[in-house]
Amino acid sequence: MNDNEHNANKLKASLSAKKAKGTVNKILQMIEEDKYCPEIIQQINAAIGLLQSSKKTLLLGHLDHCLEDKLREDKAKAITELIKIFDLK
User: Model's pTM, two decimal places?
Assistant: First the structure.
């Protein structure tokens, strides 16, 4: 992955996160307005999906663009970061 692709992936992840932020704000408003619970839950699922998309995009970019350098710099730290990212501990 070249730098342009890496930057495009970061922009894609940022847009997904911003959409999730808007959805979370909508969720809070719906709760405060005592909206129908299944509708709120549907919006929660949408926010989770957007955040998962952002996470996947960032992770793929990291694995493809950054990980090789990180492993050369400090292999133990890079492995620890991956364990944390994948919630393996």
Answer: 0.84
